[in-house]
Amino acid sequence: MTLITVQGLRKSYGAREVLHGIDLTVDDGEIVGVLGPNGAGKTTTVECIGGLRTPDVGTIRVAGIDPAAKNPELRQILGMQLQQCHLPAKITPAEAIELFAAFYRNPRRTAELLELLGLTSQAHQRFEKLSGGQQQRLSIALALVGRPKVAILDELTTGLDPAARRDIWAYLQKLTDEGMTILLVTHSMEEASHLCDRVYIVDDGRIVATGSPAELATSGGRQTVTFVPSEPIDPADLLSLPGIASATVDHGQVTVGGDAAAPQTVLAELIARGITANHLRVTGPTLDDAYLRVTQEN
After folding, report:
1. The CATH number, out of the four listed (3.40.50.300, 3.40.50.2000, 3.30.870.10, 3.40.50.2300), of the domain defined by the range 2-217
2. How confident is residue 220, by pLDDT bands cut at 50, 70 and 90?
3. How far is CA 136 from CA 108, 119, 196, 199, 240, in A?
4. CB 3.0 to 4.6 Å from 134: which of 37, 38, 130, 257, for a disulfide?
5. Residues 18, 12: contact at Cβ < 8 Å?
6. First CA to last CA across the chain, in angstroms?
7. How far apart are CA 35 and CA 152, in angstroms?
8. What are the start-end ranges of the H helices in 146-297?
9. Do residues 150 and 4 touch, judged by C-beta distance below 8 A?
10. What's the whole-number mean pLDDT along residues 9-24?
């Protein structure tokens, strides 16, 4: 079942149009990522989906509800975590969670969220005294306190250390196993690759690519082979092989780039010449590669 549907979304600020017809869907239980450069329109898109901004043109439905209609039921099923968390300076994490919990029918326990997000020791510390990472974790807690069916998370783990980031990823995967659906805005290709079932790449207010992280990563098909040959080999000889796009030598290490069959092609040539490939490494295309390719093409 599709929980989020966006069709033909357009939005302008004054004379400047920042969204030029966004179409996307998120199915029940999915984690879908929205990637793109700064200023591409990612945050505006999710703010329209969350009902924080009104689109100029287009249709949005979240579990059948139009966010622009200000239906109070939307707040019971939708949780949002924005890029920055602004709360009264003297409020504590425990107080903030309990305050937000009061708006929901079946909220999560404050102690549970504090523990899961590593804030137990800061439960009674003023917001103004929290570090940036702790404020970020609190904003995630506030987005999840109401047991939302759908969560919109914008720059989820910005400012968090690697251990905290991994803990939150594991927690979100547990929540999706329990039925939550997540729309995730991120600049982290690692985060998108680790968490997302599908991603949309947005550039200049348009969707320029979509698919699973693996599908997008392999769409370019480029493979890189590095090795140290047991005896010298001319890179020009490797460049003459079918499917090879580049070949260089640096301090005795050969690096060859080519299509999906490049590793087999290079190894076959080396075997035919009686050359051993020492320290052999084959690197496939990544989501970073796909992201850079499609945004540069756009």
Report:
1. 3.40.50.300
2. low
3. 18, 11, 20, 23, 53
4. 130
5. yes
6. 32
7. 14
8. 162-177, 189-195, 213-219, 235-239, 262-273, 287-297
9. yes
10. 96
